[in-house]
Amino acid sequence: MKRVLLAEIMHETNTFNRIATTKPDFETRYWHEGLEAAFVLKDTNTEIGGFIEAAGDYGWELMLPLAASASPSGPMAASDWARVKELITAPMRAGEKFDAIILVLHGSMVTETSLDAEGDLLSEVRALAGPDAMVAATLDMHANVSREMVSAADLMMCYRTYPHVDQRERALHMARLVQDVFDGAPRPKLVHARIPMMDAANHGQTAPGQPMPGLLELADVIEKRDGIICASLQIGFPWSDVADIGPNVLVTATDETAGRRAADELMQALWESRHETQLEFARPQEAMALALQGRAGDMPLVLADFADNPAGGAYGDSPNLLRAMLEAGLENAAFATISDPDSVVVCQKAGEGATVRLKLGGKGAPELTPPLDIEAEVLWLADGQYVCAGPMWQGVRFSMGLVAVVRKGGIDIIISSVPTAVMDLNVFRSVGIDPEKLTTIGLKSRNHFKAAYGPIARDTLLVDAGGIASMRLKELNYSRIPRPIWPLDN
Ligand SMILES: [Zn+2]
């Protein structure tokens, strides 16, 4: 029986976010130590769920010391990062031997003590596991892959969908490659390619008409060649001021020369897709012009406030788009969410039905996204818990922290206690709002919302209302990225 150590530490870090990410931030999504992770995640659309299924199919003996995933945010606190590494490596330090170590990672994680968290972790795991053990990792499509990660691992691949809905599927695929080696297949080699650029293929969106589906077809063709096992396209994460920023390619090959050729070919294709990356997005005024065309009974127009998207590691507290919606006098509209625990407390003290004065949001980056002074009616107070209806994260319980819903004019505003990227319809339903009946929805997201909101929307629009996840990259102060780099330099 093969012994496999499985662990997850998943965090996408926006290095422009000044607030450290701690264990309690992970707990709003999940942080499970030991077997608890298996009970909670085995039937979910997660990598851990997929690996548990595979372990059953292949008869692996599984050890699962940690499964932790947080919403993107600022660098992880030093002490919590030390704890993560301690938990994941404890079985090996205690002398346990494993045939494979499989890590579920993001690939764009930064901590207070490491600009390349996954590289550090994989190197430590490799040193402890020895050269004979397989070291494999699954990554998010937005991984900034480092040389350290590549040299420590035998197998790495990322998702092929954005919105990301193939976590479980990718884990099953990775598990099969690991089992192939257990069954005697030649041990593969990882080949990596990169060209200095910050974004490609419109951030990896896999909807029809985008460049990514064509690039993935090319990857499929390449995977059928002799000596190639897997071709993985990482789009990278641009809001991270690190040396390894940007789109990159990983090819897993038994023939290294063929692997190198394939990696360079795919990287060139990613480079050529850069002009299809949208760098200018709608301004709030344009969005309002579109929203005002909505009539009662229409399906909702969904406006995505992506420059303050917590899934891009932003503060999730910018009222800029909401302010535009209020000034436009929209009716039958709702906004999710403004992260502002202080305002939630004010609403709780006042109670449902009361009128409150709030200085709403705008605390993270007031120079870009100042607070909103409003007087509003408290409609609903809730615990902020919801179980995702899916398809993304289907079945997983998330928390917005304590929430208050307030009404100002024709707009219901969900105020959360933690930054909340809106991917699921149950964000609204959990506080008594039926998103399908709204004329206009404003939400914090860039692309993930489309999996659930696309089917109920008359249209979706990405709005750049300012924030630290804006695509106006020239306005952010990078100091560690390599130069020259596209699109900052010509
Ligand atoms: Zn991603």
In helices, the fraction of residues equals: 25-40%
Shape: globular
Counting helices, strands and paired strands, the structural category is alpha/beta
Main beta sheet: strand number and arrangement?
A: 8 strands, mixed
Beta percentage is: 15-25%
Can you list the ligands bound to this structure? zinc ion
Would you identify the regions where 5 or more consecutive residues have pLDDT less than 50?
none
Which value, in Å, is the CA radius of gyration?
22 Å
Whole-number count of domains: 2
If strands are numbered along the chain, what order do they take across the biggest sheet? 13-14-17-18-12-19-11-20
**Overall residue-averaged pLDDT value:** 96
Task: Describe what you observe in this structure.
The chain has 490 residues and is an alpha/beta fold. It folds into 2 domains: 3-276, no CATH class; 284-470, no CATH class. It contains 14 helices and 20 strands. The strands form 4 sheets. The chain has an 8-stranded mixed sheet with strand order 13-14-17-18-12-19-11-20. Helix 4 packs parallel to helix 5 (117-129). The longest helix is centred in the middle third of the chain and has 17 residues, at 256-272. The termini are far apart. The protein binds zinc ion (ZN). Residues 140-142, 164 line the site of zinc ion (ZN). Zinc ion is lined by residues 140-142, 164.
Sequence-ordered SSE layout with sheet pairings:
Blueprint: E1 3-10, H1 23-27, E2 30-33, H2 36-41, H3 47-58, E3 61-63, E4 66-69, H4 78-93, E5 100-105, H5 117-129, E6 134-139, H6 147-152, E7 155-158, H7 167-182, E8 189-194, H8 211-223, E9 228-234, E10 248-253, H9 256-272, H10 284-291, E11 301-305, H11 320-327, E12 333-339, H12 341-350, E13 355-360, E14 372-382, E15 385-387, E16 397-399, E17 403-408, E18 411-416, H13 426-429, E19 440-443, H14 449-453, E20 459-463
Helix pairs in contact: 3-7, 4-5, 8-9
